[in-house]
Write a structure and sequence with these properties.
Layout lengths: L2 E4 L6 H7 L3 E8 L2 E10 L8 E5 L12 H9 L2 E5 L20 H16 L10 E5 L1 H12 L6 E5 L7 H16 L2 H5 L6 H13 L19 E6 L8 H9 L3 E6 L6 H4 L1 H16 L5
Parallel strand pairs: 4-5, 4-6, 6-7, 7-8, 8-9
Antiparallel strand pairs: 1-2, 2-3, 3-5
Helix pairs in contact: 2-10, 3-4, 5-7
Length: about 290
């Protein structure tokens, strides 16, 4: 498995400047083609510390996290891994004829993430990582923890989706109009080599009629690790129903409801979020009983 190192430039300059780390690339084989994944290690010198993996949102990328991963890893005294999924950031864009299906998040959790771990030499059976996922990334974290229950130490879920709500569809439809009629495309181009790949892959499947029945409620009950599920009270893409339903299915879930917070708690309420994650992380890292 080939790995390449390169100093960040272009779209990801902001992220590299914020973290002081290099952007690297891993080549994996996925869906019968070669795919390049951009990734970044945070505090790799903490060799014996737990690993926290960051899973971005539906329009996110490595660079769009900005300085939050470094701040959180420093607060937790852990190592971090940030990466862009295929189709995002500087990772390989979607193929011209590639149309995402309703199982697109399952594929990321079951196929891409384990393959990336293998490519980077991360032994998740010996040292299960912690996962922090935002929006679609939160759903991917849940799916991974359910499929590989012994290979996840814990999950922090920021505005995760486990079912499709009307408010989500309405906001994603508005995003489509903004992409076509405003400067949204040029703003996304700062963070993605191919903004059309990132936007239309996400937007078209979420607005597809066959996606309205998508749910992972019946799958997450297999999760054995602790969860911290976070929802902003002003989230335009989801409601408290999402995290409350997670808690119904996974009893070891801790809930955090944030006022004055939209879809991105790590931007809107970063101080409160980091404090809550730090308490959650150290409580369960010690092995305390709930």
């Amino acid at each position: 498995m080939q790995r390449k190192k390169t100093l960040s430039s272009g779209a990801n300059l902001t992220s590299a400047e914020a973290t002081g780390q290099e952007i690297e690339f891993a080549d994996i084989r996925w869906r019968e083609r070669n795919v390049r994944i951009e990734y970044q290690w945070l505090a790799p010198q903490r060799v014996s510390a737990p690993l926290l993996v960051f899973l971005h949102e539906g329009l996110g990328s490595l660079a769009m996290w900005r300085d939050f991963p470094r701040q959180l890893c420093d607060a937790l005294a852990c190592r971090g891994l940030v990466y862009s999924r295929p189709g995002y950031g500087r990772s390989t864009p979607r193929a011209a004829d590639e149309v995402w299906q309703p199982d697109f998040m399952h594929r990321q959790a079951y196929e891409v993430l384990p393959t990336l771990f293998q490519a980077l030499g991360i032994n998740t059976q010996m040292e299960p990582p912690w996962l922090l996922g935002h929006s679609d990334g939160g759903s991917i974290a849940l799916l991974y923890a359910a499929r590989f229950p012994r290979q996840a130490a814990g999950c922090v879920l920021l505005a995760p989706h486990i079912l499709v709500e009307d408010v989500s569809v309405a906001s994603i439809a508005l995003a489509r109009t903004a992409y076509l009629e405003t400067d949204l495309r040029s703003r996304l181009a700062k963070y993605h080599d191919d903004p059309d790949s990132a936007f239309w892959g996400w937007n078209r499947i979420w607005l597809a009629p066959e996606f309205r029945d998508w749910t992972i409620e019946n799958q997450i009950g297999a999760i054995g690790c602790p969860l911290l599920a976070v929802q902003g009270l002003d989230d335009e893409y989801g409601t408290l129903r999402q995290i409350h339903r997670i808690a119904e299915r996974v009893p070891q879930t801790q809930l955090l409801e944030l006022s004055a917070c939209g879809h991105s708690p790590h931007r809107d309420q970063s101080v409160r979020l980091i404090a809550a994650v730090t308490e959650f992380f150290h409580y369960h890292k010690r092995g305390d009983k709930p």
